Amino acid sequence: MTTGYTSPLLSRHGAVPATGPDEGVAWHYGDPTGEQRALRTGGAVVDQSHLGVVTVTGPDRLSWLHSITSQDLTNLAPRTSTELLVLSPQGHVEHAASVVDDGATTWLVTERSHAVDLAAWLDRMKFMLRVEIADATDDWAALGEPVDAEGAEGEPVTWRDPWPRVTGGGTRYGPPEAEHPGMERPWRLVLVPRAELPDAVAAREAAGWRLVGTWASEAARVEAWRPRLATEIDHRSIPHETDWLRTSVHLHKGCYRGQETIARVHNLGRPPRRVVMLHLDGSGHLLPAPGAEVTLDGRAVGTVTSVARHHELGPIALAVLKRSVPEDAELLVDCDGGAISAAQEVVVPGEGVSVDRPAPRGPVGRGITPRGEGAPTSML
């Protein structure tokens, strides 16, 4: 989707424009490897001004957002970051937003292509409640920083990425935090007035930081197995498939749209698909595009969602596969110029069972199997 946005930082010397969901900002500034290293060592800033910003004000804002989304927001403290999903009645992901409240306004950062629709949907859902919704994308821009800290009082509005920690009410399908590669990726978004974006970057450069592109930030995200609305999510996605119950869903809050699917799959079923990280064969210098077909023994079994050239790991990708694909199977990925082989790194295990799935309380009904034996995907 073309947004029509162009960052003023694209006028920098050496800037190469990004494409796809990052259109409008720089993919890199001439040195992708050096930029990745700078981001890894914590001395970099990433232009994320292509993201969308939605604000919600009014005394009912947190309790109202709590009632219509997947996250527990009733007692969200100021300058405490979380994230939420808006689900369809069938539990499919429609919107995702990074969330932080400053005591007067709840800030929702999302993909620019979703901001208008998210604001419109929220506006339709407010009824008689004391809330006001605005698409503030034209007024506010985001900067990405490799910093693991919330914004302090007096600082700009800041969202600290909770991934891959299991937040209150969440659960995990993948490894514990101590074993998760995402723990090596500190990340936050700092919101600045859009007109002040160049000055905010210049101030960081004056402190010794380097301006880097989305090649670097996306490579770090793929390495961290971090799902993204614009890439890993399609019209069939449920949060379990991407291990997004870690940070975006509270399993023990009140009713909200899509909750039945969330609870049913967690308690009894198994997600029909699972996300994996692929280590791609780079010997032929071929790289698949997002959307490329993944095959096993000549059968289509999944789709590549995100692709990156990592400065240490080489070519890597995230892909969504059928849950039934064996975890040790070597796959083929379509490329322009021929298929290449890909080895899986498991993110969501094929078993499809979370670590805290409740044990059955009594005899299991026909077509439903207890923990460890799975359940039919028809339960979705």
Automatic annotation (TrEMBL):
Keyword Transit peptide in record: yes
Superkingdom per UniProt: Bacteria
Boundaries of every Aminomethyltransferase C-terminal domain copy: 273-342
Domain GCVT N-terminal: 34-143
Keyword hit for Secreted: no
Keywords from the UniProt entry: Transit peptide
Region span, Disordered: 1-23, 149-168, 352-380
Biological processes per GO annotation: iron-sulfur cluster assembly
Annotated positions binding substrate: 184
InterPro entries attached to this UniProt entry: GcvT/YgfZ_C (IPR029043), GcvT_C (IPR013977), GCVT_N (IPR006222), TrmE/GcvT-like (IPR027266), YgfZ/GCV_T_CS (IPR017703), YgfZ/GcvT (IPR045179)
Database matches in Pfam families: GCV_T (PF01571), GCV_T_C (PF08669)
Signal peptide: none
NCBIfam families: ygfZ_signature
Name of this protein: Folate-binding protein
